[in-house]
């Protein structure tokens, strides 16, 4: 797995700013990173929020999803990818 310096820098700044949450599993493929686990340190605390997405200045994206059931994880990923593919889409 290769991570560019800008993505690493953004991650380090986020950890220093928000602290480290629980264990996370992460994967990077091209400009997209996905992290699954305790997302509270990265996503605004909203009741029932399963995930969030961050666009970094270098054009990369990170999707964060809470480590729940497989169904909840699939729903989170689909929801966040919907934001990427259709930026004008708003929550119903």
Which sequence of strands runs across the widest sheet? 1-2-4-3
Shape: globular
As residue ranges, the low-confidence spans are 12-19
Q: Average pLDDT across residues? A: 77
Integer tally of domains: 1
Count the DSSP helices. 2
Going by helix content, strand content and strand pairing, the class is alpha+beta
C-alpha end-to-end distance? 36 Å
Please give the number of β-strands.
4
Query: How much helicity do the residues have?
Result: 25-40%
Series of H and E elements: HEEEEH
Rg from Cα:
13 Å
Main sheet specs: 4 strands, mixed
Walkthrough of the structure:
33% of the residues lie in helices and 25% in strands. It is of the alpha+beta class. It has one domain. The longest helix is centred in the last third of the chain and has 16 residues. It is globular and about 25 Å long. About 9% of the residues have low confidence.
Question: What's the SSE blueprint?
Answer:
Elements: H1 5-18, E1 24-29, E2 32-37, E3 51-55, E4 61-66, H2 70-85
Parallel strand pairs: 2-4
Antiparallel strand pairs: 1-2, 3-4
What features would you highlight for this structure?
alpha+beta, 4 strands, 92 residues, four-stranded mixed beta sheet, 25% strand
Summarize the structure.
The chain has about 90 residues and is an alpha+beta fold.
